[in-house]
Amino acid sequence: MHIIEVENLSKSYDDLSVLQGLTLRVAKGEVYGLLGPNGSGKSTLLYLLLGFLQPSGGRLRVLGKTNLEKIRGRIGYLPERMRYHLNYSAREYLHFLGQFNDMREARLRTRIDEELERVGLSTVANRRLKTFSKGMLQRLGIAQALLDQPELLLIDEPTSGLDPAGQQEVLELLSEVRARGQTILLCTHYLDEIEYLCDRVGILAGGQIAAESEVAQLQGPGTSIAIRVDRLAPELQTRLNRISPAVRCENHTIVLRPNNQPLQAAVLRVLLDEGITILTLEPLERPLERLYLQAVRGATTDITEALPAGLLEPKSDESPDLAPRRPGEGDTLLNELLHRDKKSAANGSLLQQDEASTEDRTD
After folding, report:
1. How confident is the model at residue 37 (pLDDT cuts 50, 70, 90)?
2. What are the CA-CA distances from residue 258 to residues 170, 263, 264, 309, 312 (Å)?
3. Phi and psi at residue 5, in whole multiples of 5°?
4. Is 0.85 surpassed by the pTM of this model?
């Protein structure tokens, strides 16, 4: 069963075309990573899936429905930049949102306690949000997105603006959510987030999914590696260089370009036989990085030559010919949505609460 089905989707703002014939499917229980540079249309796609915007062309179906207003309460959303009423406590804030979702008071209190515990904020639940760091606020954002136990979770740049410790905390939390079988669409421009969290990845470039792959197929050895050792005598360098033209020795580093498993094994065997201590073995280029760069540069026709056979999932051209909407038809301002529909407010309020911005706070 597909939770998200997008067919030939396009979106334009006046003369600016952002999405152009995008086709995407996300299965139930899958964590799908949408990877693309800033400005590629990732957030626009999320707004379309939430019903905040209407497509200029094509069709989309979420949780089996084309009328997205009817299923908005079944979707959790974590935006990139969150705004809060900073005079609320964490508990008060979640209680406020839960009331918009028509949750019974007893269940709401239970769910608030569960999610505060899950994101590690139980001990500070009654502190004002103005005292929270960015990392704490982002964890609260995860709690609000999961408060009503949604069937689908949409996440936009979850670690943006966080320090390394905050980034790791958020990724570990999302990994726990993933382990519960939650369907997730994650939009990011960080390769590490894709490798850590996702089952599949699509590269958004030129308004389309330019390339798509199982993440597991992108976690093999890179096309080149650097082996750093504690010492590398001239005679040993000569011996290593004779193994293959792909071996290059410099100071205490051996570079294999291009790398393959037999070559890597042969070099490592020589080093171990000579009693050389291997300090690090690092990829100089990851398969996911190569896939991303070639897709963004418009060189997807060459990817099959650069990556292992079967790595790419070809995009089907057999999608049904769906009648597009007229450009701009049905577009609704976000404020209008939030004021008109309480359920919309519960999932979109983080975009609109303009009491104060958290952008200048530190972790």
Report:
1. confident
2. 35, 9, 10, 16, 20
3. -130, 115
4. no
